[in-house]
Amino acid sequence: MRLTQTSELWWKNAIVYCLDIETFADGNGDGIGDFRGAIQHLDHLDRLGVTCIWLMPFFPTPDRDDGYDIVDFYSVDPRLGTLGDFVEFMRVARDRGIRVIADLVVNHTSDQHPWFQDARSSRDSKHRDWYIWSDKPEPDDPKGVVFPDQEDSLWQWDAQTEQYYFHRFYKFQPDLNTSNPEVRDEIARILGFWMELGLSGFRVDAVPFLVERVLEQDDALPDPHEFFADLRAFMNRRDGTAMLLGEVNLPYKDLMAYFGDTPLGNEITMCFDFIGMQRMYLSLAREDARPLAEALRERPAPPKDSQWASFVRNHDELTLDKLTDAEREEVFAAFAPDEDMRIYDRGIRRRLPAMLEGDQRRIRMVYSLLFALPGTPVLFYGEEIGMGENLAIEGRQSVRTPMQWTSGRHGGFSTVEPAIPMPGGDFGPDEISVSAQRRDPDSLLSWIGRLVEQYREAPELAWGSYEVMDGGDDAVLVIRNQGIVTLHNFAGRDAKATLSLDADGKVLADLFSDDQIEIKDGQAQVEVEGYSCRWFRVSDPETAP
Ligand code: MG
User: Fold this and answer.
1) Hey, which end of the chain has fewer CB within 10 Å, N or C?
2) 3-class DSSP state for residue 276?
3) Ligand 1 centroid, distance to 96 Cα (angstroms)
4) In terms of pTM, does the model score above 0.85?
5) Is residue 55 a contact partner of residue 102, using CB atoms and an 8 Å limit?
């Protein structure tokens, strides 16, 4: 690869860090995180090696769906700061060489949004066609309800204009009609606005829903993929290095269309690997690497300028919707034994360290995997220190607790009681905090820092074409990515892998120690301790790192 490519296609080996301004740090002492607080903690992300921050929604909102119900796409929620604070945040991030992307939530608006208020005022209103109306619910309703425990239909009756409006999510989140050219223009305007203020791209929420054809007559509409191709083209005319990170939870064969059908990719730049993620949890539950290995073998290569995004956990529940019922039950039994830890019969509202009962060996092996998997790692705030969840908080909000900065009062998040309660006990700030782990070279934070360094020093992990090798032990996942070979042992017992490598006379140089393993007769014998990982570079014995 050429240096110009690696810097221009920066997302290919970025370290993405997702944070919610509301729960990151409180700068004005009202118990709610804000931009001023986040600015004071950007050095933590800089030290960690983060190259791109993904901001969760920070726009004005009635906050009935944690900010994903927006009333103004061109402003900052007053609880979180001002547009001035946002610009200052961008300046400080840029100073540290950190790019910023933000959630683009344009599948729907809040029902309080002035567009919807106007739309529902009369059938002839200016914004009527910005939303999706029907005289009756579609025949297959309520198939596809996203929150089945709280919504029993995708259609909500509007008494004033005597029609139903469509809402894929909650009934207070009417879907925008993206087949309307005026809506598409407005979405482009929103992108353009925030790009002028310095954003390097957007994480696109609920991608397949954004362009779904809801009504039967929609079949006459142009190809929905044109929407993303147009949006991407618009964005890249403004800034050639801006990117779109998409939430596309679909089987690989259906997902590929969202990268676009050109050799470089012309729609969503990076897609999360939801399939690989779900298979990883099945592998963890079974202590058997094969489910994940199968997914990685099956996973198509993205178009040339595109990329897979890897993740362990995110801000939502851990969705297991792509596993079979029996597989899902296995994961539930292992990591969410209590009913209260599950949600919507398909997900787990916990963070990884709690699911693994704090077992440091397994936690570190999983995060090693996050960086070793071919693609771009995306961290959710607090993962770098092993934060847990607070199950006392309802629904999927349980994993969105305040960042734990110190072991002191309120975890250093705020000078007053945080509006969102932190967990206590083994996962509370007294046990888990940034300040304590910074001083400890054996902490999870230090381990993640080393993984970030190795990942950045091995660009082939992100850029190369990989091969899942058979090491002869089902518990061990072996990935060769050009000169880098990684092994991850999903089982608690020690394992031995036999690797066939076409590199006689060379050695496997351990990237986390001084160890070297000879490659003899095209083979190397590698021992991997229980729940452990190893990273190697195929090297000449004399010049091994
Ligand atoms: Mg505040």
Assistant:
1) C
2) helix
3) 23
4) yes
5) yes
